[in-house]
Amino acid sequence: MFDVFCTECSRRQLVFAGQVLGIRNDETGIHVVFRCSRGHVGVWDTGRRAAEAAAAHPVAA
Ligand SMILES: [Zn+2]
Q1: Which of 55, 52, 36, 57 is nearest to 44 (CA)?
Q2: How confident is the model at residue 61, as a pLDDT?
Q3: 38, 8 contact by CB (below 8 A)
Q4: Phi/psi of residue 51, each to 5°?
Q5: Which of 8, 13, 42, 45 is positioned for an S-S bond with 50, CB 3.0–4.6 A?
Q6: How far apart are CA 28 and CA 42, in angstroms?
Q7: Beta bridge partners of 36
Q8: How many angstroms separate the alpha carbon of residue 39 from the centre of ligand 1?
Q9: Cβ(33)–Cβ(23) under 8 Å?
C-alpha cells in the first residue's frame, strides 16, 4: 500500500498492490506506475535518486 498524489484528482490517496501497473528502477529513481481509485494513471517517483533530483530541481508549490 502506498500513499501517492494523483495529479488528476489533485489529492493524496492510498494505492494498493492491485492498483500498481508497473515499477521501473533506473538512474533517476524508482517510478511506480499506478491507477488511482478513480481510474487515473499516474507515476509516483520515489527512492533516494528521485529525492535527490527533486532537491536539485525544486518545483514551486
Ligand atoms: Zn485520480
Answers
A1: 36
A2: 54
A3: yes
A4: -65, -40
A5: 45
A6: 17
A7: none
A8: 6
A9: yes
* Closest C-alpha to 48, from 25, 16, 23: 25
Domain ranges of the chain: 2-56
Give residue 58's pLDDT band: very low, low, confident or very high (50, 70, 90).
Answer: confident
User: Strands across the sheet with 41-46, in order?
Assistant: 20-26, 29-35, 41-46
Question: How remote is the CA of residue 8 from the centroid of ligand 1, in Å?
Answer: 5
Write down the pLDDT at residue 24.
95
Centre of ligand 1 from the C-alpha of residue 44, in Å:
12
pLDDT tens readout for residues 7-36: 999 999 999 999 999 999 999 999 999 999
**Ligand 1 centroid to residue 38 C-alpha, Å:** 5
